[in-house]
Structure prediction request, 791 residues.
Amino acid sequence: MRRLITALGVDYDQWRALTVAWLKLDVRVGSAGVAGMDWSDRSKGASALLGRAFFYGVLGLFVGALVFLLRDRFAAALIVYSYILVTVGTAMLMDLNGVILSPTDYGVLGFRPIPSRTYFAAKLTNVLVYTLSLASLIGLPSTLTFGIRHGIGAGLASLVALYACAMTATLAIVAGYAGLARAVGPERLRSVLSWLQLVFSFFVYGGYFAVSQLVGRSALTNFAVPWSPWLLLYPGTWFAGYIELAAGSVRAPHLAGVIASVVALAALAISMRDRLSLDYVERLGALMSASAGKPARRPARRSWFFRSGEARAVAVLVRSQFRNDLRFRMGVLAILPLTLLYLLIGMSGGRGADGARVPDLALVSMAVLLFPLMLKAQLAHSEAFRAAWIFFATPADRSRLIQSAQRVVVAFFIVPYLVFVGALLAFFVDDLVWLAGWLVVVGLMSNLVLLAETLVKPVVPFSLPPGKMDGTSKMIWIMILVGVLGGVLPFLVGWLASNPGKLGAAAAALIAASVIFARLVRLRVERAATQLEYQA
Amino acid sequence: MILTEKLSRSYGEKKALVDLDLRVEPGEIVGFLGPNGAGKSTTVRILTGLIRPTSGRAWVAGYDVLEQPLEVKRRIGYVPETPALYDALTGDEFLELVACLHHVDPANSFFRRVELLERLGLGEARDKRMAEYSKGMRQKVVIAAALLHRPEVLILDEPFDGLDANSAAVVKELIKRLAEQGCAILFCSHILEVVERVCSRIVVIDRGHKVAEGTAEEIRLSMGAATLEEAFGRLTGAEDVGVAAADLLAALDEV
Prediction:
């Protein structure tokens, strides 16, 4: 190992020390002592990680079962590698971008004699530990299934493809971040990174949606992918080609896919070793000093609905965190494309009675439900979690702070989002009164979902340390939840569409449920808030 | 030693440091003074390789901070003004990490860690996570980390911050002895009495410019002041403290 690492131009002792220390920190963050002020059972970091591993393991078993059920080998492989790409991509976009981009470590280590390449290698190792572990948990059951169903060669090929796929996704996103940090001046880096995050997110979730749409249109067991050269643009097909080749189906497209994957991986590895790692530390330093010299922005305007007190404090905090906290900003920008994709597909997805294209209101509803929920999940964690002492040292009502977070999401995100969706739908829907009623119903549902989330996990905004893979598992949970809702919503939307009276009844029921939930949230939060202690 | 020539740094339009010439010889303790925002931290961050100067040059222990930053970092011990630590590590684990990064021999590293933590009164807390440490305990860990690899140059930014009187006295004595052994020490502090007592020479900067240099006595005499504090106030354009306090109270009354 020492020889290999040294041959790459990395200082082995420093790399090892950093790798061990960072992994130790990852396991411990979230455990007692540095857990912020979440009063829920503070599980030790290790057991929290084990819990997440169990979740991904179950997901892996599900994917493995899918592989077993599908008759078409290539289609099965395509689904597996799409899952791997979307999971690794989500992990990189939601949780691990900070490992590469955050200058926090630089404040502790910047003045130590660590060569740039060693620093970069240790960071990359830290990221790979997570992404390869994720890939193992999700992909190994499928590998076993491929071996049982299609022979040992296919099983081995799927193993190689699994790690090649996870490595390629990881290195591509790391190369994107590090390359951008190199190409763009530190002053513009934050804004350009935001765009890159949007592009990456569209790419990661776009592929997922494309495959979901294909699967959705066919009976599951008969699902087969009609071949097209365009498929080669989607990396999932490259890795599926490995299994085809190993199973004896030597066709030019599969061969081309495998060659493309090898070339991509080699190119990424070489660029990491040479260009990207050499001035990485300097770039981090520049990023740190750029934020120091950033001119102050215009103070937030006083909105008419959050004028004072805890609600105003949370509103100001959310705004400024979005501007200044790179992790929070990147997290929000990672979820935006997913919800926009739902909206896009929803807008063009359905067919009317006359066969004309009309919006699929169930998918549009999901977009409205999904975005605020994922956003609210982002509001709890921040690298500045220690600053939450201010909520404890001032006479702020903590229960109001917690409830304000939910209200801020409603006011700043759900309402504008509904207005935007309503404006789009107005082109398709003739009955505008019905449309307004439908928007109110969806808005109330979204509010109810947020209340339920607050009831389950009432947290003071930005008061918890960012845990590794925390956002990823939340995102996957939400995607599963939305998948389930996807089964129910078409019936509900169909029922609501049939009669304005039913729309009114639904709105009344939702308002009643919201009132009951709001009361429950207040009781829960008030009781819990008295037990809160600042522990950062 | 530390040497800078016309060292400058701007943050956008703002000039944080302008043409600073600074020299700290081996065995010397130089006090580096200035009001808030004067450019002290910027200077220190350039010298430690955390940021780059906009123009000018700097050498530490004979190495150019821009061209040979790793050589510089190998030879400095640095106590930052607001030390960031990995809170989830224990004090001993953090020092072990630092020792590895400085390639301190593992056997030596162990004894040095034990010895330093014991001497600084952290023997019993060495296996506790630093999240449980008080401010003073964290400061002691940072001081231990700065000394662990026996640096040639020490850069201390408010090293006594959070230390109790006894610990501060020990660290003061330690700094003097390190200087006697040939260590070049740049000492940044706002506590003028300590600077006067510990440092052999003082450099004062204000708004990025060097405004005075010499012994405490020389600076005091050159400004015709009775104390270093008074001289510092005149050099940095501070208004009369009585007037400032009255203005503050008046502002509170107006609200």
